[in-house]
Design goal:
- By secondary structure, the chain is mostly helical.
- The protein contains six helices and no strands.
- Helices cover 78% and strands 0% of the residues.
- The protein is extended.
């Protein structure tokens, strides 16, 4: 339900921006006001909301939502990585303070990997949405295959699942 609401709002934003520029008889791409489709919403906000401080408030709301989501994702990723991979190996050897520092280090590593991916995505052609849907589509097939393998074939083992998942990604 949440994804449907998000997609509806996103589509409505695109329709409103399209209608505005059709009425204005202006295309931001042909007039070289924006270089990338990802720049349309900030450009639209700067053009339409010309009250002092309102565009800054809008952009700060965008950053606030993005940073809160990113913070939650990085912390969850570090916690799952600790619980599933490192706790069985190091859990009994570290005290609570060291475990906290280790998970904070994992957040730093995953954050750095995210920043590196953002710089790599900068060179991709098209929009961020197209790139994310391509990566999601490429990974969803092997994940579905692993779920079906586990649910329908009880004699399958972990080695076969790992090999099948990796070959599915290739």
């Amino acid at each position: 339900l949440g994804v449907a609401i998000l997609m509806t709002i996103t589509c409505l934003c695109g329709i409103v921006i399209f209608a505005y520029y059709v009425i204005q008889d202006c295309d931001p791409f042909t007039s070289n006001k924006v270089d990338n489709p990802n720049q349309l919403i900030p450009y639209f906000v700067m053009e339409v909301l010309d009250w002092p401080g309102l565009p800054g408030l809008f952009i700060s709301c965008l950053f606030s939502g993005a940073l809160s989501t990113m913070s939650s994702c990085l912390n969850a990723l570090a916690a799952v990585t600790w619980e599933d991979f490192f706790k069985p190996v190091f859990g009994h050897k570290l005290n609570e303070k060291q475990k906290t520092y280790f998970t904070k280090f994992l957040v730093l590593v995953f954050g750095g990997a995210g920043i590196g991916m953002a710089f790599m995505a900068q060179g991709l052609g098209g929009t961020v949405l197209q790139a994310s849907l391509s990566f999601t589509g490429a990974a969803s097939g092997p994940v579905l295959g692993l779920f079906l393998l586990g649910g329908l074939f009880p004699w399958a083992n972990g080695k076969g699942a790992v090999v099948g998942g990796l070959l599915g990604l290739a």
